[in-house]
Write a structure and sequence with these properties.
This protein is α+β, with helices and mostly antiparallel strands. It has two domains: 226 residues, no CATH class; 206 residues, Alpha-Beta Plaits (2-Layer Sandwich), CATH 3.30.70.1230. The chain contains 16 helices and eight strands. Strands 1, 2, 3, 4, 5, 6, 7 and 8 form an eight-stranded mixed β-sheet that branches. The two termini are 72 Å apart. InterPro entries: A/G_cyclase, Adenylyl/Guanylyl_Cyclase_3/4, HAMP_dom, Nucleotide_cyclase. Belongs to the adenylyl cyclase class-3 family.
């Protein structure tokens, strides 16, 4: 047996023994109070009853105590082997464990019943008038012991019962808070009240009962209720307030964004079900957040937020955007001369630079096409200067790549103009993309830029659009007109501008308002 298992066994034995001792001590105190003070007549201290009081009673109490503690402890340890040995419980283990509080309680009830019958006979042989008194006193005390014992045993076994809930075994329908509070009411209120009623009846039908004796009997029973009632009420309230407070703290952590806020399931009643349900809810939130994060990484944060905020459908709207296309130079040679894992590592470093700069300039990395990247500025989040942001991002990428990934160089092209932006595909599977001439133009410019990867290329519409804004005008000063070129697949020549090599400060005209964005929204000015 492991050390943790040994500690758990010692803890269970200690707590069970303490619970049984406390319950039986309360029962013994009730018996003495009622027999000697509460119902003094007929007296059990008669001389002829010496053998019952001083021989039979001590022997039975000692034997019952040892037998009760031993049988209850052995039964509990035998049924809790799965928990002590830290193994998965079987359905049979779950049934035996769930029945354990009732089993241990019935053992105690049996011992008290045997004592009630035995001592009723013993006292009745000598003094028949003692029979009602012994039955009433021992029966009442036994019910109190059974009620308090069950509650204390259930408290002791709360972590074990909660462990069953954590393993998917639901609690038994006849157990739970209702049974706990009913027993608390029986022990703390019903039994003392019934006792008071019976004492009054005894006083009425016994001519020799004085008012003082009647008053003392009622007072003792009232004190029993006043003592046991608060004890059971406090125990019951603690079983509810403790788990609720732990969940209140966990809710506070969740509100602050901490989703690692599981609560310990340590109650086998409906409260334990509530704790387990809370953990299931938090697990669902964690999974939802993980899927949201994964979704954002696949399609881009802006697209993900826009999709989650509304009801994405097929189709799109016309937008004015800047397209930035980055294509690796010599990717075939790179793959032929290096191991596949090394190529993937280099490409990841290459893409990391692009993603960082595109996001830093308020763009969207729309697609990874093998060893090429398409980024969009102005959709789905509208920008006041998409062209200026794209031009700044292009120069920043060209400036960083030689130092960050010297093994890879790339051509960078920037196009600008109207596109259709939206969801393309089928109802079952679609993606957000942009379709239009600026995308094709940026791809062709990236091919042309491979002649000198230090200088990204842009079309005249991109330069002209950027020059209309204050921030874009500052960026345009870092671009110069190079030539008029007829790009592959295009009927008209394109006036090409090249970026001036040099470090580029990361400045953006606007910070996108993601919360207020929508696909197809109007450009912010």
């Amino acid at each position: 047996m492991s050390e943790s298992g040994l500690r758990q066994r010692i803890r269970i034995q200690t707590l069970l023994t303490s619970a049984l001792v406390i319950a039986n001590a309360i029962g013994a105190a009730i018996v003495l109070a009622l027999v000697l003070v509460g119902i003094p007549t007929p007296s059990v201290l008669a001389t002829e009853l010496w053998w019952v009081n001083y021989i039979a009673l001590p022997i039975y109490v000692g034997v019952a105590f040892v037998v009760g503690i031993t049988v209850c402890t052995v039964t509990a340890v035998r049924r809790l082997q799965w928990s002590i040995r830290e193994r998965e419980p079987t359905p049979a283990d779950a049934r035996r464990t769930q029945r354990l509080p009732w089993t241990l309680t019935m053992i105690q009830a049996t011992l008290w019943f045997i004592g009630m019958v035995g001592f009723t006979i013993m006292y009745g042989i000598v003094e028949p008038e003692l029979i009602p008194k012994i039955i009433f006193v021992t029966g009442m005390a036994g019910l109190v012991v059974v009620s308090i014992g069950y509650i204390l045993i259930e408290f002791t076994l709360r972590p074990v019962a909660a462990g069953l809930i954590s393993h998917g075994f639901r609690r038994r329908k006849r157990t739970g808070l209702r049974a706990r509070w009913v027993l608390a009411w029986i022990a703390g209120s019903a039994i003392p009240l019934v006792g008071i009623l019976l004492v009054v009846l005894f006083g009425v039908f016994r001519d020799d009962t004085t008012k003082i004796e009647l008053f003392i009997g009622v007072t003792v029973l009232a004190l029993v209720g006043l003592v046991t009632g608060p004890i059971l009420t406090i125990l019951g309230s603690m079983s509810i307030t403790g788990p609720i407070r732990s969940m209140q703290k966990a809710f506070g952590r969740i509100r602050s964004g901490d989703l690692d806020s599981d609560v310990a399931v340590y109650d086998g009643t409906e409260v334990g079900d509530l704790q387990a349900g809370f953990n299931d809810m938090v697990a669902g939130l964690r999974e939802r957040e993980r899927m949201r994060d994964l979704f954002g990484k696949h399609v881009g944060r802006e697209v993900a937020d826009a999709a989650l905020a509304g009801d994405p459908r097929l189709g799109g709207t016309e937008r004015i955007v800047a397209a930035l296309f980055v294509d690796v130079i010599g990717s075939t040679t790179l793959a032929a001369n290096r191991a596949p894992t090394e190529v993937v590592g280099l490409l990841n470093d290459f893409f990391a630079v692009i993603v960082d700069e595109v996001i830093g300039h308020d763009g969207l990395v729309n697609k990874f096409e093998g060893d090429a990247v398409l980024a969009i500025f102005g959709a789905p989040i509208a920008l006041s200067d998409p062209a200026g942001s794209a031009l700044a991002a292009a120069r920043a990428i060209a400036d960083r790549l030689p130092g960050a990934v010297p093994e890879i160089s790339a051509g960078i092209g920037v196009g600008y103009g109207p596109v259709v932006a939206g969801n393309v595909g089928a109802v079952e599977r679609f993606e957000y993309t942009v379709i239009g001439d600026p995308v094709n133009e940026s791809a062709r410019l990236s091919e042309l830029a491979k002649r000198d990867p230090r200088r990204p290329l842009a079309s005249r519409p991109a330069i002209t659009a950027a020059a209309r804004t204050e921030s874009g005008a500052d960026e345009v000063r870092n671009w110069e007109e190079l030539d008029s070129v007829t790009l592959r697949g295009r009927p008209e020549p394109t006036v090409v501008f090249g970026g001036v090599p040099g470090p580029v400060p990361r400045t953006t005209a606007d910070t996108p308002d993601i919360a207020g964005a929508r696909i197809g929204g109007r450009t912010r000015r």
